[in-house]
Structures are given as C-alpha cells and as structure tokens.
C-alpha cells in the first residue's frame, strides 16, 4: 500500500466527539477494550498514493498511529502503535533475514518463510503483524492473512503467499512523516509470570545482601563513603578490549600494511583502535599478556597473525583473513588513543570529538574486478573493504610471481593486471609499474564504491545509519554564503537529510542560534534536496551546530560567494610635492 511515498495533505485536529468515535471503532475492530490513544490530541490527514487513497491518523507528535482506505471503515494500526500495544494483533513470526531482506524491501510474506506454531486467530482475511523470532513482540510489518494458517502443521515444502503486506517499517508512510524511530529492544509489555519471578529474584538478592551485611564487622559494611570511581579494570575486560582492537586493526584499518614491526603495530594500531576507553586504564601492561611479544605469540598460536623474528624483536608479516572471528567482526567507533591527559587538552575541541559519526567504505566488483576476486580465491560476497582489496591484489601478485627480481618495489604486470590498471588499452603503456601505484587505478576502474555511516548508539556501540551500504562516496553537507538581490546576505544549507537531519528541526535550531529568519525550500540543482536558508553570514555557527549533531567538519563543504568590500584608495599625487606648492 505504501511502497511509494504518498502525497499527504495538511493535517487537522479531530474534534473531541470524533476522537471518541474513532477510539471506540479501534477498540471494537481489534477487540481490545484496554487500548487507548497515546495522546489527547489526534490529527487526521488525507493521503493519495500510487495504488490507494485514504486517511492517516497521527498523535500529538505527528507519529502515524492508524490509517484507513477511502470508502472503507476498516482501520489499520501502524507498526509504531503495535510497538506500544504488542497484543493488538496476532503475530506471525519469521527469521531476521526474511524481515530485513524481503519484508522491509516491499515483498509479501510467503508461507515457507514463516515459523510454527500459528496463532488460532490467523485465519484467511485476518489482520496480523509480522515479527522476528528474536523479538516476537516487536511488529515490523502488518498485512492481511491470505491462507488459513491455523490449519497448517508444517511449512517446509508449502507454497503460497501467507500475508499480503500493507505497511512496514521504513515504507512510504514512514518517509512521508519523516519517521526515524528505532524499534524497541523488547516488547512494551512484560509477561506477568516473568515479572513476578523477576521481583521474587530481586527480593531474594536483597534478603541475601541484608543477611550478609549483618555478619560483617561494622567497619567492613558498605557505605556511601566507599563509592569511588574504580582506578583499575578487571584483567578479563582489558583483554577483551585489546582483542577487539586487534580484530578492528586487521579488518578495518586501511592504513595497516605488512610487514610491520611489533612496536609500531602496538602503538599506532592496537592502542589507537581501542574502543572509547582511557588508555591509561587499558594497555598491554595491565593485561594478562603484560608484554608485546607474549601478546603477539598468543595470537600467532591461535592462527590470527604470522610472525618472524626471535625473542622480543618481532615483525608481523600477515594475518589469516579466513578466521571466523575476523569474518564476523562488526566495526565499532574507536577512541583514537584516548587518555586522561589528551582529554584535558581537547576539552574545547568540538570539531573532532569521539561522538562524531564514522564511515566505512565498501567496494563492489564489476567486470574484471570479479576475475581478480576469483583468481585470488577470495570468499564471494557483494561488498569488500579497502583492506580486503589490498590483500587480494597482494595475493594475486605473489601467486603469479609478478614481483620484479631486480627491484622488489616494482611488479611486471600480466595481461589481467594490465587490463585492471589501464582502462583504455594502449600498447605504449609500460608493464613495469610500482606496487604503490597499482591499488588506486584497480579500485577506481573495476569496483563501485559504497559507504555506510555509523553513529554512536545508546550502549557506546556503532549503529549503522542505513539498512545497507549506499552506492557512491560519502556525501557532504553544503553551506553557501551569498548576497541576494537587494544586497541581503544569506546562508544556505543543503544535503543534510542523508544524515537523518530533519529540515524543520534544523530550521528551528538555526532560527534560535542565528537570531534570524529561516525558510525551507529545495535546491535548484539535481537531484533536488531540502534546503534551509537563514538570513545573515552564519557559516561558523552552522558548522559548529552540525558538529554538535555528530557530523565531522571534514564532511562539510563551505563556500563564501560574498565579495569582500573594496578599500577606498587615497588619491595619489602625480606631481612632486614641491611643484604643487610652487603653483
């Protein structure tokens, strides 16, 4: 129903009598006497889509809660309503892959993709919700049941559409209201039995603590004066931090090149790629390994890295990218070598703090790039990191013995490597080339660049901004200061919506920060995006505000089109002063 973004007209508040009537209809249709609207103010707006038209009802915060089609009285709850009321609809459970790759891309739910058992209310024509088995109470889509599911005892081998999906998270309805709400971690309601058990466990723990405190000497009992910040972390936690940094360095740091000395690897990669922790508390000396050599030997024994050298004089020559831990590793926001001293020195630096968004570039092979992947015996997947591409190229060079025997820094390209490097075939181009000059043309000519942006989550984890990496290079927010007709200076901001910044919210913020009028429009260039315009030259204020929204300065382009005022030159004397006085 909302595969394409519908055209939604201006909303208006419902009268109190209409609101009560709508609430009664919702309760009757869903057979839920306990349901109530999330706010006292309910708005309605008419919409017109590609295949349907009707009315959308929203709450006070402009979140769509219910909708219905024209000439029909049947009301459909939105996924946002189902999050707060998980018992409103019977729910069909499926796996996460079906949710993320199929349902959230507009496909219907097939019977083979469902999981048993089925709710007895799931009969043909019933309204239902679709959720993942990992979060069975968090509805990600709603639709109409197409089969009598309660009669099915198995789904393997069965065919047919189980649910015709009408609305899902991130569809056109969500886009039209610019919804950025994230699904809850668990359902809104807790099972009563589990809640009683949880309370009983808490009571048992409290009783146990009370009894243990009675046995303690008066000086040994806990009190508020002993609540101090821990000066040290447990060794196992420190080991975990350092291990994660190793995984990150091997899989996601594009600057890492082999061979590399042990001291360089530890100082410039392991310590720099730690999660956001104080390096004074997390370092090798405080880990279970204590020394660099012992740390590296441990991971060599585990099959992660390859070493050369004796005693403490070690060199890392490579790593095993086939390790399961490295393949499944998810990147996080690094602390970039945080320490107590550096934090004090950078207190006033807001342009490059740890809360900034991070980006990761991925590359999709095309044409001859696929041949390179096959020749390198690399695992086939849709996207690769820059680090993986460099490994594939190095592996291919070593496999084909392309290194020049006279100069190890040069390679003698074979036919495939020659075609990868030179897009336009020209027999005059040399086949002997520096190894450093190979990676860039191969990547540019044979791979499509994609990017994913990560933001700081609630638990200090990196949360992807998009469902999938987006094709192209990382976009930049454009800021232009110019003079309009009438000699009025304005500042325009555009291309910010890709970072999930709402135009109306940005305009309201700039109105306060710049103490000037703001307007919202569209850019004149293609593709057209939202543009916020504020009166006056406020580029630095806007850049600082974007930094506070976690957008680093390197992702902001500023252009000043206002010509500086010309200085009036004093009239010069063409004649010598003595001649002027004699006149």
From TrEMBL:
- Pfam families according to UniProt: Pre-PUA, PUA_elF2D, SUI1, SWIB_eIF2D, WHD_eIF2D
Q: Where is the DM2 domain?
A: 361-448
**Domain spans labelled SUI1:** 477-550
Q: What Gene3D superfamilies does its record include?
A: 3.10.400.20, SUI1-like domain
- Please list where the region (Disordered) is annotated: 330-356
Q: Name one GO biological process term.
A: rRNA processing
Under the heading InterPro entries, the entry gives:
EIF2D (IPR039757), eIF2D_SUI1 (IPR039759), Pre-PUA (IPR041366), PUA-like_sf (IPR015947), PUA_eIF2d-like (IPR048248), SUI1 (IPR001950), SUI1_dom_sf (IPR036877), SWIB_eIF2D (IPR058886)
Which CDD domains does this UniProt record tie to the protein? eIF2D_C, PUA_eIF2d-like
The name this protein carries in UniProt is: SUI1 domain-containing protein
- Organism per entry: Tetrapisispora phaffii (strain ATCC 24235 / CBS 4417 / NBRC 1672 / NRRL Y-8282 / UCD 70-5)
